[in-house]
Amino acid sequence: MNTDMFEKANRLNETLFTQFSKATEMQMEAFRRYADVAMEQARKVSEVRDLDGLKQVTSEQAETLKSLSEQFTSDWKAWQGYLNETREQVQQVFAADADAEPAKEKAPASKGTGNKTTA
């Protein structure tokens, strides 16, 4: 029984470690993208020297905001997919445990019955 518990915990830990690694990678990629956009915008603003430059930067920022909005939507969908995948993986761990338990319970019961009749 203790071995079964450790095996279940090990499978769950492996699943969670894999999923958390994916989450960390997704988060770091998103951070890099948004940091790059912020740095690019800061660079453009720092290069403004006249009214025409300011007009150009503000018109480009509208495009940048549209692009960021699309990226937010894409990231949100990716996170939804990640959460669904994680849920499915954890459910599979517990489903495998649920499927394995009845088989294990039946086997000792039949052996136990057989031992009682021979004793």
UniProtKB/TrEMBL annotation:
Residues 2-96 form the Phasin domain. Residues 96-119 are annotated as: Disordered. Pfam families: Phasin_2. This is Peptidase. It comes from Marinobacter halophilus.
